[in-house]
């Protein structure tokens, strides 16, 4: 039912110009080391008291970069049903907020299909408001590249920038007037709780075809124009940048605007992009009496050298971005979640929105015979497809269960916590691929007879690792494949009415 509506879900500021390996032990080790440092720095500063942070995830299904898919009559009912399921899934994990991108110029008067886009978002916000969900909307510029821009929308946007209604190429004054009207429409018709009027200056510059200047002073002038010309009603207005941007952008927002809040996007965790940049931004918010929100947070997996060698607006590439969908990197995702949740409590962040919802519901297991033959875009699509399919049936991943525990814990979490009290959990074996041994972990919530078996590709059982009654708890079993040939195998856990199968890859 849902497969066709998950076809255009690839949103980032990345390109595909570089060639970085999909499985990178250096990236995994480097990010893990950095996140351990970040977590230690947070613990030094934090007294352990929980704040009232609203945790959220991005509603990618309603991201405006999806373009014509949002109002296609053949797809919209299924899409709206999937959005209902996604909201259910987020709330099941304990999230009380939603982040969303509604991007310039789709709601500008006269832009092709602006009325249809607005009608779609009215339906989405009716669902959101009826649930009492807190909303944070970012109004950046639409992606117009061939990878992340939906072709029909990208064509409309490029034509709009070249002539608009008046037949003039986009300039700063036209941009300010049009975006003011669009953001007032968002306020009047959709009434989000938070509206970020400007964000990610490097990304904006690229997505606006480099027609608008985005140095620090120009960025400041745009923010002040919007703040002075919008009637916010009950909507809080703010602005922000990515933690990879110069700290001067944050300083100007804090000290020289009437914004209610500072919005920061945290990624990647390398260099000083988390520690110490996030701590400095928090200090600016406190000094100038601003709210702090985290509009996007995701754990990009790359080495410092890959960041330095990248020529993209944000320090990453398509080959790096695709790493997010593979369970090889799952352990550092939980470290990142711990850092973001604890930092949010430390800094009394009002709303924190994670930016990779699919990994909360499922990862791909790397299969070189399959994944090495795919393009980067195909791998990303496969990863998002798998995550959304699990989301639709409310089956969280180990990372999702960890996030649920973190945000619902009434006290500070000192170290890695037990992942589930209600769920059976079959973790991905580690390492994977392996040679010659690997560890399979699982957790059962109550006393059950447990079977854990290894199967070949023909479905034949070749090893029985567990075949007995087990008390509730978490278990780890080592499997030795020394006598087996290199290929894909499967392991199956059966406990009570629960059963799950996962792949493991022996590579000698």
Give the key terms.
508 residues, 2 domains, Immunoglobulin-like, 4-stranded antiparallel sheet, alpha/beta, TIM Barrel, single chain, 8-stranded parallel beta barrel
- What is the name of the CATH topology of the largest domain? TIM Barrel
Spatial strand order of the main sheet: 1-2-3-4-5-6-7-8
Q: Can you give the mean pLDDT?
A: 88
The topology string of helices and strands comes to HEHEHEHHEHHEHEHEHHHEHHHEEEEEEE
If you had to describe this structure to a student in words, what would you say it looks like?
37% of the residues lie in helices and 19% in strands. The chain has 508 residues and is α/β, with parallel strands linked by helices. The chain folds into two domains: 3-408, Alpha-Beta Barrel (TIM Barrel), CATH 3.20.20; 425-506, Immunoglobulin-like (Sandwich). The strands form three sheets. The chain has an eight-stranded parallel beta barrel, surrounded by four helices. Strand 2, helix 3 (114-130) and strand 3 (134-138) form a beta-alpha-beta unit. It starts with 24 loop residues before the first helix and ends with a strand. Mean pLDDT is 88; it is low at 7-18 and 415-422.
